[in-house]
Amino acid sequence: MTDNKKVNRRDFMKASAATAGLFSIVPRHVLGGVGNTAPSGKVSVAGVGIGGMGGGNLKAVCDPERDASQNEHIAALCDVDFAKADDVFKRYPQAERFKDFREMLDKMGDKIDACIIATPDHTHAITALESMKKGKHVYVQKPLTHSVYEARVLTEAARKYGKEFGVKTQMGNQGHSGEGCRLVCEWIWDGAIGEVREVHAFTNRPVWPQALLRPTETPAVPDTLDWDLWLGPAPERPYHPAYHPWKWRAWKDFGTGALGDMACHILDPVFWALKLKYATSVQGSYAKVCTEMWKHLEHPESYPMASKIHLEYPAREGLPPVKVSWYDGGIMPEIPEALESGRRMGNSDGGVLFIGDNGVLMCGCYGAEPQLVPYSKMRAYKRPQPSIPRVSTSHEMNWIEAIKDGKKEATSNFEIAGPFTEMVLMGNLSLAFPNKKILWDGENMNVTNLPDANALVNPKARAGWELVV
Q: By C-alpha distance, which of 378, 371, 402, 377 is closest to 389?
């Protein structure tokens, strides 16, 4: 240093990453860091939304029961419901505790490098964006966002803050780091079933109450819960246990239903192997509840019990047009004629059928190893040499490795996860206009034939919770 100006950690990290990759996690004593100081070479992580899946994500990067040399540093924990978060608080007693992620980001400052975000879907985007704006690496549970617009914002924000601060991103669809997704891609690209023009994907979800009317009771908010923070950008409504904990997935204001829960796993090899981006059209239909003869009960605020959705994609990168169909709530695609009796389609959570000109390939959920149909084709098939790099760690640690490396990207970074999430959420958009074919201009995020649908592409956020890049 040639002058007495204070070193800015963000600028220092940018300069360091550009210096032959010597180090990307700067020892905090170099920068005068205080408080929860992470050991040299450790990533200092904050967890936001830790009472459910977030606790598992944190354990993947720091498990007190394993050797400390394999762990990162948990510096802060944030959850709007301290009762739900209590077990995780006890696991990491040294971490500072917060209810408001904005307060956490302001107070912790450079004491944290990265945030693992596993809040309900409707607060993914605002939490991730504000974290990236402060130079934090982000791991966000699937689905990446609650709306198509939010997914586009996070994709572009990741590019912006990746260049500015070196931010590394990852969506929490763990199957993307698995062997099965890579095998699906390699086999399809090898021509194992010829050109694919038709895909059928299905799940056993929902496994929570769905197709519901808004509850009318107004029970007291639990003392440990900050309900206003839980609502975040969603419109105000009274607290009810029908929303929190966990059951929020059923409600359009908070969750993304069966699609949001499972399509980011099940459709992952479809999006990857077939090199998809934006659909040109989507059409959905769903099961209706009949309360009495000829009278159907509508549930405008909750997702349906079961649905079927079709997305159409144009020719791309030398591949033919393809139609992708989605089924949930017990609806299933037709069993391929070549599938042997007693042989299961997919696994307990769902699966995919790729229908090719020369055969059928099927796979289960979470990156399960694919199979050719009939099984005699599996025995005869000579697998191609691996062409996609393999991931030797957990999905979370793949992200940590990208942070430490500084040059590599995580396997499901937002450049990939953002457009993929848009695909998933277009399915939900179709359920608001059942039995109508929605024509989609993906580049401009615009429904061209049903103008009313565009309000759902970018729903209005509650005042004070708007996305500002």
A: 402
Distance CA 170, CA 140 (A): 6
Cα(236)–Cα(318) distance, integer angstroms: 48
pLDDT reading at 279 higher than 60: yes
Residue 382 is encoded by which pair of tokens? Answer: 């000579």
Secondary structure of residue 284 in the 3-state scheme: strand
Task: Name the pairing type of β-strands 73-78 and 44-48.
Answer: parallel
Q: What is the pLDDT of residues 171-191, one digit of tens each?
A: 999 999 999 999 999 999 999
CA dist 122 and 255 (Å) reads 6
DSSP strand pairing (371-373 vs 196-203): unpaired
- Cβ distance 427 to 284 under 8 Å? yes
Looking at the predicted structure, is the pLDDT value of residue 376 above 80?
Answer: yes
Report how far residue 339's alpha carbon sits from residue 349's, in angstroms, rounded to the nearest whole number. Answer: 19
φ, ψ of residue 44 to 5 degrees: the values are -90, 115
Task: Say which DSSP state 3 is in.
Answer: S
**38 pLDDT tier (thresholds 50, 70, 90):** low
**What are the φ and ψ backbone dihedral angles of 451, each rounded to 5 degrees?**
-55, -35
Name the DSSP letter for residue 302: B
| Average pLDDT over the chain, rounded to an integer | 92
Give the residue-averaged pLDDT of 334-339: 95
Sign of torsion over alpha carbons 446, 144, 36, 227: positive
Compute the distance between CA of residue 405 and CA of residue 64 in angstroms, rounded to an integer: 24
The residue count for the chain: 469
pLDDT average, residue stretch 390-415: 97
Residues 121-140 have a mean pLDDT of 98
Q: For residue 456, how many other CB atoms are within 10 A of its CB?
A: 18
Helix 148-165 and helix 414-431, axial crossing angle in degrees, nearest 10: 170
Distance CA 229, CA 209 (A): 24
Determine how many CB atoms are found less than 10 A away from the CB of residue 212.
Answer: 17
**Is residue 57 within a helix (H) or strand (E), and if so which, with residue range?**
helix 53-61
Three-class SS of residue 138? Answer: strand
Is 349:365 a contact under the CB 8 Å cutoff? yes
Q: At what angle do helices 53-61 and 395-405 cross, to 10 degrees?
A: 50
